[in-house]
């Protein structure tokens, strides 16, 4: 530490505190589009938003083409941009999901020739990635490409295109178009199929020279937590490719588990799926094990949980960390205890040595440092970044003003 | 038709007869290595060989590295060459299985560095493909690449190599080495995994420029015939790549079916698995449906059945077309009835027209034509080939001596 004139500051008491994690603690931001846009919304309330932003530093925004642009030429751009700004103002980064998928597609693609569908798909990618550059710089470039050409998904414009072109050309299309308009974007290849099929696809994609920034691994666990061994075994299979891994869609229920014989989770329909005290205890325990194991894996850079509240949750399942009545479940407290407790460097007073050095240890992320007296006025403190490679190494600060 | 001097032969009676099918009716030739080499053999008898060669025109020979070369530097080349010649002399073409696989590997690969294993694997391919050129010109270049890097298969030299290199480099290795020494060989990418995983792998292989001659699709059906719809649905998924398809390993039991919950067929062990009258009737019916549906598919060029006799059959299952006592099952008669009956042009007398033309209709294959009087002396007759594109077209013969 030096002062503004470059003099070292020996034997000086300073306070170091963490501002953010480098690790992505994500969740879906779907519930806050209304609130962010000043629309009446019973689910996305201010109090839910406060709970959200206290734990999660990344929000996944919905860009399902069929909902984003139900009428051709009238995309929901302004509303999503406002939501993105609203999150950003709360310290939450954004991710877009997805640019290419075969589900929730616009009806106006139906019946068009595949060449026309390809042209429109490419234009949609360029338009939306450009419109959100600087707000949304991380994208699921393509979702579920493994089944894309063969899944019986009802009429939609994309399945025939994928069947005609093949998986790798579809992936190349998504990455090339997104990269062309936002070269610094983080682009993911995201899938729920974590079998050898996805490995084979990845190997083909890498052989064919498509530049992937991260692999997205869905882990919906409505049928029960897989356990650390199975989860890390899976993660290790995909870590072999040397790419960062994002667990893009994790969910754990706080009620009865879905029967194990259901193959497509969408096929399971129940009239009521309540959150129970036993289920909530199990969910909290499973969630903590899930995050602890993944946080310790060197390839995993983000975990996105798929739901903040049970209200309106996917499949009606009690996968939220907050009950439908707005009260946090034990799982919420457990995750907050890790993200803002055990893994968080709360403001810590340290004394510099004779050469003006202080030593801190913390998880990769953003930090600030200031003299004790000035610390509260954070705009006067110095920020620094601890990157993953810096773990357990000292950071020397150039100056304190 | 003309005579030796070039004169047309109008109003002349000739006999046309089929000699062979272009379609590959294959079976394993494993049981005849002893007989072909003059060794005492209780299973591979002359009478079994006669039944075999009356239906099957292609034999798959075993080149499992661990059995072919159990002692390093002492491959079983001469014995396999003799078996290949023995089959060839009976009008049966040969196929080699497999050049690269992770099962039945030599112990002397264990503990060697992967670079050394790769060098030895490459040398083994070049050596064996060269040693058998002209005798064995069709090879399963690589077997079961989908699971190759990840299957828990006990200690073997190939799994670590596949894990280190990846699937597509392993496939490239196999095809490049085999192609280098036998450019006219038919090289197959063969797998039992017929899910999207194999599709993804194929798409990656094609993107990366490896030249595949045919796709090998295993269809062991110890758990019951899949039915025409499921089988052709699967075939259509792989026909999309425009490559010839070989159903390389088909089997149907003539006894109790293996329970449906067995995932790896090798896990099912029973002390006795008898062939039953009911099972034999079902097997014959299933077999006929299987062959009829595949013969009618334009992409399918070969079906290899995986066993001629129940004696010593894989898994002890009654998958043979001949009982352990050497008598043919109904399935044998059913298949022979197609291959040498319904789908076969028996010697047929036809009369040429005023311009010396005769018209025949038959399945793609080899045919001979001679004047009635000389027909029995087949060396004096004219041979011609009907290729698949020639179906239902007339073949004009240049001359009859």
Write the layout of secondary structure elements.
2 copies of one chain form a homodimer.
Chain A: E1 13-21, E2 24-28, H1 33-36, H2 46-55, E3 58-62, H3 65-68, H4 77-89, E4 93-97, H5 114-131, E5 136-143, H6 158-165, H7 167-181, E6 186-191, H8 196-207, E7 214-221, H9 228-239, E8 245-252, H10 277-295, E9 300-305, H11 330-342, E10 348-351, E11 365-371, E12 382-386
Parallel strand pairs in A: 2-3, 2-9, 3-4, 4-5, 5-6, 6-7, 7-8, 8-9
Antiparallel strand pairs in A: 1-10, 1-11, 11-12
Helix pairs in contact in A: 5-6, 5-7, 6-7, 10-11
What keyword list fits this structure?
homodimer, 401 residues, alpha/beta, Immunoglobulin-like, TIM Barrel, eight-stranded parallel barrel, four-stranded antiparallel sheet
Describe the model.
Two copies of one chain form a homodimer. Chain A is an alpha/beta fold. The first copy, chain A, folds into two domains: 1-22 and 345-401, Immunoglobulin-like, CATH 2.60.40; 23-342, TIM Barrel (Alpha-Beta Barrel), CATH 3.20.20. Chain A contains eleven helices and twelve strands. The first copy, chain A, has helices at 33-36, 46-55, 65-68, 77-89, 114-131, 158-165, 167-181, 196-207, 228-239, 277-295, 330-342, and strands spanning 13-21, 24-28, 58-62, 93-97, 136-143, 186-191, 214-221, 245-252, 300-305, 348-351, 365-371, 382-386. In chain A, the strands form two sheets. Chain A has an eight-stranded parallel β-barrel, surrounded by four helices. A four-stranded antiparallel sheet of chain A has the order 10-1-11-12, with no helix packed on it. The first copy, chain A, is globular, with a radius of gyration of 23 Å. At the A-B interface, helix 8 of A face helix 8 of B.
